[in-house]
Amino acid sequence: MNIAIINGPNLNNLGKRDNSIYGSKSLNEIEKLIIENFTDSPVSLSFYQSNAEGEIIDYIQKITETTDAIIINPGGLTHYSISLRDCLSDFNGRIIEVHLSNIHARESFRRESLIADVCEGHISGLGWFGYLTAINYLLS
What we know:
By secondary structure, this protein is α/β, with parallel strands linked by helices. It is built from five helices and five strands, in the order E-H-H-E-H-E-H-E-E-H.
C-alpha cells in the first residue's frame, strides 16, 4: 500500500511552536519515528509538506494515480480551503485527516473542518501518534 503523508502550513515549524499544543518533536523527527514504526510492514510511505495551498493541491493531483491513501494534516487550510477540499474529493483513494491538537477543544474557528466530509476518518488530539493510528487503520 502506498500512503502519502501530507502536512500543510506551519507544520515545518513543529518543535519551535507552542509545545503545549503541538508537542516538542520537529516534523523531521516525526517522519523518522513513523518510518521506524513501519519498516517491517507492507507499506510504502512518502512525505510532503508545504506552506502553499496551491503546491499541496498540485502534489495531490500529481500522486493520484500512484497512491492508495492520503493522511493529511492540512493545518490552517482545514478551516477555509474549499480548493483543497475539492482536490481531495477528486482523489479515488482513502483519506484520513490528522491533527496533532484537539481542534474541537481550541478556538471556535478551528472546530470546523471543510475537508472532513471527504475523509474516511478524522484523528485529532493524539499528537504525532495520530499518524501511526491512521497508518495502522489503513493497513487493517
